[in-house]
Amino acid sequence: MAAHLSTEEIQRAYIKVFSGLLILTVLTVIAAKGLHFPESWGAIGHILHVVIGLVIAVLKAWMVVYIFMHIKFDNPYIRVFIYIPLFLFSVLVFALTVLGGSTL
Amino acid sequence: MSALTLTHEPVTGIRHGKLGMWIFLASEVMFFSGFFTAFIILRNSNLAAFAKGATELSWPLAALNTVVLIGSSLTMAMAILSLENGKKQRFQLFMFITFLCACTFLVVKYIEYTTKFHHGIYPSTSTFFAMYFIMTGFHGIHVLGGMIPIGWMLSRSFSKKGYTDYGRVEILGLYWHFVDLVWIFLFPVLYLIF
Amino acid sequence: MFDFSWNMLSYFPSSVSTYSDAHDSLFTIVYYLGVGIFLLVNSILLYFVWHYRHKPGATSYHYHGNNIVEFTWTLLPTILFAGLGLYSDEMWKVMKYPSRVPTPDVEIDVVGQTYAWSARYPGSDGILGNRGAKYRSNTNLFGIDPSDPHGKDDIVLTGEFNLPINKNVVVHLSSVDVLHSYFLPNFRIKQDAVPGAWIDVWFNGTKAGKYELACAELCGGGHYGMRGVVNMQSESDFNKWIDAKNAVRKQVLAAEAAQPKAPEPAPAATTAEDAGHTEHH
Amino acid sequence: MEAAVATHEHGADHAHADAHTHEHVHHTSFIRHYIFSTDHKTIAKQFFGSALFFLLVGGAFALLIRWQLAYPGEPIPVIGKWLPDSLVSNGAIQPGFYTQLVTMHATIMIFFVIIPIAAGSFANFCIPLMIGTDDMAMPYVNMISFWLVPVAALTVLAGFFVDGGTAGGGWTNYPPLSATGTGHTLWVVAIFMVGFSSILGGMNYVATVLNKRAKGMRMFDLPLTVWALFITAVLQVLGTPVLAADASLLFLDQVFHSSIFLPENLLISTGNLHSGGGQPILWQHLFWFYSHPAVYIMIVPIMGVVSDVLATFSRKPIYGYKAMVFALMAIAFLGFIVWGHHMFISGMSPLLGTTFMLSTIVIAVPSSIKVFNWLGTVWRGNIYFTTPMLNALGFIGTFTIGGISGIFMAVGPIDVYITDTYFIVAHIHYVLFGGSLFGIFAGIYYWYPKMFGKMYNETLGKWHFVLTFITFNLCFFPMHMLGVGGHMRRIHDPYIYDFLKPFQPMNEFITIFAILLGFSQLLLIANILWCLKYGKVAPRNPWKANTLEWAAPAHPGHGNFDRDIIVYRGPYEYSSPESKKDYLPQWIKPATKTSEKEHEAIAHEG
Ligand code: HEA
Ligand code: HEA
Ligand code: CUA
Ligand SMILES: [Cu+2]
Q: Is residue C9 part of a domain?
């Protein structure tokens, strides 16, 4: 695969992703454990924590999929196997949280 | 009659096994989607219990495991690359590290679980722990499931014939990265966010 | 062999609430729509099948279809169905949206327990006492908060309940164990009783009489037998009935007060009615 | 389990390398050939055989149910006195046993009959043959997919022998009721296994259709059966894992006393073991997120089969082929966003109710498109009334009834009244028996010659259809009336309710025809078994059909084809002016002298 890239280039990409993943892991831990929002922010502080945690996770996941799993180099066709389940997952979550509210 | 050409190149250009693995991974995403949905719903109705549960987990252990899995993903990717380039020893080395990482992950998981049990924490303790045990449990089963072919390929590569089936290793790699990916979400969701 | 009618509408149990009338007319619309479509589609099918049956020497028409036709028979049902959906949504809203629940004239709690229905009336103070799952026990199905004075005079009944007609009755529905479903066929009302949740059901009865209450959600072997009766009475009859119940309840409370207090605070609603209901199953 | 996938499927790539020459002699053992075979046709037959067997078992349970409803409290004839006292009292069905029968009836019919035969047998048999290839993309995965089914069936039926009996919560098994009891645990485990089997099957079908089409075959050259099976496979792959997750969560509640579906302080036996905080309705959401698509898993393949049968025996191209494909896709897509119509009375948010009501009503549109296009297909045809054709026509009639009763239920306010009554039971059987099973009969007769190399008996087949069609309607149509009358489902003895007492004679009527319906199925079994041995030897293309399976030898062996397959046209060129015959198969070269000759030759080949 990825015939247009030399082995060295791919290796460099791998190492970059690996370091990126490590850095993001450290960041997410710092954000969760070290970052305190003022009490007065109330629920917003809590929501920010959730958002930061998830955004970092999505970033990391994207790096894994894009480089390690070769989505970047491979047949673009393969992307549907990622998009469709993600879409269905969001339908489920949207229905049960936004529309469902507290009663489901 | 001469040989038939019913078996030709895959129409999509993606080998059957690899295509199959991607379809399987789509299915796996839905499987974990079920758990994540349940997690979100239960969390929204029991914020307090979930916050309390998360503080009782050991995030340093989980962070360690995150690093271990990320590392194993790298070594797996490198192993595939090495095999593609015919570098047998590098392949063996990287596969071995991957295997080792998987073992480490499971040992850490084992320590985590047993400490929980010692503190009297079981799935019945709260919905948070129910979700914790089932999500990490299924993830652990996936790790274990991945170790079997990793170990098998590794041992085969030491045999006389060696192991050269690049295609299979690539498929295994996809699976392995997916296992890593699930953990990337489990880590913040279970241990960090509350 | 038995009374049979092709007209499905003739099988409805008698209609005794404001809803059941609305329900039956909506059903009638869908029914005639459905029957019409069925007859249309199937008579066309039968005609084609018979008319174009194989005859010696016959050939068929090589034709792949027509996009304008496809478009038409996609659009027409879409309009029809979207119309039906939007039209019925109004009734759905009236039935289900909490914002559309009318101000109650009578308010009761109902819980299902394998395999019986129990109801709680507000008592002489007209207020239902607070309740919480943590107070729930076999002798206090509703989980009445023992520290709430409003709960003391509440009346708990099992199996048969009286309610007034021409009043907005709001039922707060729940269950203490598994799912049940509160089904009043004559009222066209059905709502699952979900443990851990209190769900509002409301209706306005129009005819006095005794109507059967059924459980419509499988709740175990005895599910079939989880029967109750709702006795719809005129307002004055109902008031007489509830006054009598309140009087009995007052006596019981007075007798309890006269006795020395038990050492630990027992659940308040351990009443004659409650005891009566435990032996029911 | 994933390990199995990872290691086996690539092996599959090589497995076919040695299979593509026909002269290649196979020294496979009996076990490899008939039991753990990886040949798609053998696996199809295995699915077929086990599904027929379970049809009898599930049908026998149905007859017990019917007996109880018609004659409550009376001993079951013949077998009543042999059953243990835990199930019967004085030979009459006990309430707990009744709910177990209902549960097992539906579980078997859905998970061990319809899904295995539609998405197992037909998919396995038709996909490789109809796309002109030698086998599935991943034959080993395919084999595992079959063998999980009997194991799962044994697991769930083992429930009858454990303490407390087998699962008794209906096939939907809503917690908290299903959160206790060994029987429920076995049910959950079995569901997980059939689910896994379904996923593995689906993976294979998707990969095969995408990757292994014959030369020249574009996606829009696929017969509708293959399209339908492909779309079904997508549903299997994406829907089933959610059920698996749901089942795992319930398993945790049952075995590890967690409380994912259990709220605080319930007055049930596990009350003191769990902590509370769970959501009973969550189970229903996840369950129906799978199980609504699952009902389409059971009907979509059938829609494909019926399309092919109609085109073949009307000697006419499918009317609106592309519209049919897009309608299938729309059904599959919408199928994922309507699950809540099973939950109108569950207490879910009313806003969700509105959403589900609208989306459900809209899902009737693609179904309407299909029905209209079928009408368009028979219009100006040249119709031959063979047994498959009769069953396909019967399908259209009964499916419209079932579909239209679906519209009643899709309207939320109406569903509030008719849900959990016999109206639903009528709907279920009109779509599943009247729909799926009639379509399956059509498919069985249609492909019988290719599957077994023999012709079925046409007279017997027609008798089977006529008897089944009549008794089916007399059995299930009155159930609509029961439902409108308020007759609840899943009740052991309706007659303790005053308002249901008058329905006893109708229930008796239904039961009589249920028994007749059941015994009519023996004609099918007899036909299949008898003709296996004594049937006429089938020609290569008995129906003079266009699709690729008919290019294969009459009873294809390993590797399927004895000629190279190149596809020149769509699957429905019947009565084309291009050809002198009224059909023009996909594999025949565009009109030349030799291709005419080949066409001629195949038509008469034995
Ligand atoms: C093969 C299986 C199958 C199929 C295809 C369907 C198809 C449909 N089903 Fe059904 N359904 C089940 C199997 C199936 N169902 C089962 C097993 C249950 C019960 C589960 C349980 O609780 O145990 C159930 C329950 C069920 C419910 C829940 C009832 C309840 O429990 O309260 C609802 C509610 O909306 C519903 C709706 C529909 C609709 C709208 C369709 C539509 O897809 C139908 C579309 C078809 C048509 C509309 C007919 C054809 C079209 C025409 C003739 C054209 C002209 C028509 C018009 C212009 C109207 N179904
Ligand atoms: C494809 C699916 C399918 C099929 C084919 C059937 C077929 C039949 N079903 Fe079933 N049914 C369901 C799916 C199906 N059902 C589902 C999903 C439910 C809901 C369950 C729930 O509520 O959870 C249900 C529920 C259900 C009920 C409601 C029970 C209740 O709610 O209390 C009833 C009652 O009459 C019933 C009857 C029948 C009958 C008479 C048949 C007949 O067609 C059967 C005909 C018989 C045979 C085809 C077999 C032939 C057998 C013999 C000849 C006997 C001799 C053989 C031996 C002894 C081995 N079914
Ligand atoms: Cu209570 Cu059924
Ligand atoms: Cu549905």
A: no
A96–B41 CB contact, under 8 Å: yes
- Least Cα separation, residue B56 to chain D (angstroms): 17
pLDDT band per the 50, 70, 90 thresholds, residue D1: very low
Residue of B nearest to A52 (CA): B193
Q: How far is it, in rounded angstroms, from Cα A81 to Cα D199?
A: 14
Are B127 and D5 in contact (CB < 8 Å)?
no
**DSSP 3-state of C1:** coil
Q: Which pLDDT belongs to residue D27?
A: 52
Are D497 and C227 spatial neighbours (Cβ–Cβ below 8 Å)? yes
Residue C54, token pair as written in the block: 């194989």
Q: Among C99, C124, C158, where does a domain finish?
A: C99
Joined together, the tokens standing for residue B87 give 């570098």
**pLDDT tens-digit series, residues C23-61:** 999 999 999 999 999 999 999 999 999 999 988 878 888
First CA to last CA distance, chain C: 38
pLDDT in tens, D284-341: 999 999 999 999 999 999 999 999 999 999 999 999 899 999 999 999 999 999 999 9
pLDDT in tens, D242-253: 999 999 999 999
- Asked if residue D267 has pLDDT above 70, the reply is yes
The vertex-D484 CA angle with D479 and D486, nearest 5°, equals 95
**Ligand 3 pocket member C182 (CB < 6 A):** no
CA D294 to chain B, closest CA, distance in angstroms equals 15
- Looking at residue B58, the DSSP 8-state letter turns out to be -
Residues with CB under 5 A from ligand 4 (ion): D 292
User: Given strand C199-203, what is the order of strands in its sheet?
Assistant: C155-158, C116-121, C106-113, C169-175, C199-203
**Side-chain-facing half-sphere of D503: CA atoms under 13 Å:** 28
Low-confidence ranges of chain A (pLDDT < 70): 1-4
Helices B16-45, B47-56: crossing angle, 10 deg rounding: 120
Q: How far apart are CA A86 and CA D172, in angstroms?
A: 26
Q: Quote the tokens at residue D369.
A: 């498109």
User: Closest by alpha carbon to B73, among B85, B65, B83?
Assistant: B65
Contact status, residue B178 vs residue B28, Cβ threshold 8 Å: yes
Say yes or no: D417 contacts chain C, CB-CB below 8 A: yes
Ligand 1 geometric centre to CA of A94 (Å): 24
CA distance D6 to B14: 16
Instruction: Indicate whether A86 and A99 sit together in one domain.
Output: yes
Residues of D with CB under 8 A from a CB of A: 238, 242, 279, 281-282, 285, 289, 336-337, 340, 347-349, 351-352, 355
Helical ranges in D315-437 per DSSP H: 321-335, 350-378, 387-410, 412-418, 422-431
Q: Residue B79: which domain range? A: 16-192
Interface ipTM: 0.93
Containing structural domain, residue C248: 106-258
State which residues form the domain around A16.
1-73
Please, which residues bridge with residue C231 across strands? C162, C210
Q: What is the CATH code for D2-262+274-604?
A: 1.20.210.10
d(CA D358, CA B95): 53
Q: How far apart are the first and last CA of chain B?
A: 70
User: Do residue A7 and residue B85 have CB atoms under 8 angstroms apart?
Assistant: yes
Quick check: C151 and C122 in contact, CB under 8 A? no
SS3 D31: helix
Q: Indicate whether A49 and A99 sit together in one domain.
A: no
Mean pLDDT of chain D: 88
| Helix, strand, coil distribution of chain B in percent, nearest 5 | 80, 0, 20
Tell me which residue has its CA closest to atom 41 in ligand 1: D406
**Residue C215 Cα: closest atom of ligand 3:** 2
Ligand nearest to the Cα of C225, by number: 3
pLDDT beyond 80 at D139: yes
